[in-house]
Structure formats: structure tokens, C-alpha cells
Predict the structure.
Amino acid sequence: MMMASDWPLALLKPAAALVIWSLVMWGWMMATRIPALMRAGFDVWRHVGGTGADAASLVPDSVQWKADNHNHLMEQPTLFYAVIAILALATPTPSHMAAAVTLAWCYVGLRVVHSLIQAISNRILYRFTTYLLATLALAALAALCVPTLWHVTL
């Protein structure tokens, strides 16, 4: 049985895992995007200005998918990190904390699956399904902030 003092650490582990996964996706993006840009004649060492969107038209779709996913990992997961921080600092009841840890790992797992789908095949139906499930896990996780912060029973 986990001690109450171990719960915040248990809740921070999925957040750390998602940070690590985001860095893995960054590495994958860089390892495919820079060579693709160079093959397209884009001089990454001399070009000044522009955005990632400027480069998108120069690389194959399968390369751009990794960049798109990396951008996605900088969007909705920011809410996840905030909710994790709130719950870790506010120390919910043991039953709410157990639910939070489970939901947090579900969210991270679904985001990893979403990344792999987008980076490899980019099948919209599969991406949408995993995104929807991850969003529901995040919403349930956020809902746990209510009883924790306002001492309301859900």
C-alpha cells in the first residue's frame, strides 16, 4: 500500500513521462525534418526568418506529420501539466488520488498512441478516437480538482 506522502510523486511520474515523450517526438521530428529540408535544397544554415509553416511545403507529408505532432504535444498537454500540479500540491483524498494517477497514466498512454498514429500513418479516424479518449481522461482528471480544492463530493 502506498503511503500518503508517496502520492504526489506517483502523480508526477506520468507528467515526467509525457515530457520525455515530447522530447522523443522532438528528436524524431528533427532527425527527419532537417535532412528532408536539405534534400529539398533548403539551406538550414543560411536561411533567416520564416516559420515552420514555410518549411511544411518543402518536406513530404510523412515528415511534416512528426512536426505537427510535436506542436500538438505543446498544446493540450499544458492543461494536463497544470492539473497534475494542482492535484499534486492539493493532495486529494486517497481514493481521488488513486483515480488521478490512473487517469494521468491513461492520458499519457493515449497521447503516445496518438503521436505514433499521427507520425506513422496519420489515419484521421484513429487519431481522432485517441484524441477524444485522451481529452475525456483529461476532463475527468480536471474534474477531480473540484472535490480536492472546494471539498465538494462528486
User: Anything to note?
Assistant: The mean pLDDT is 92. DSSP finds seven helices and no strands in the chain.
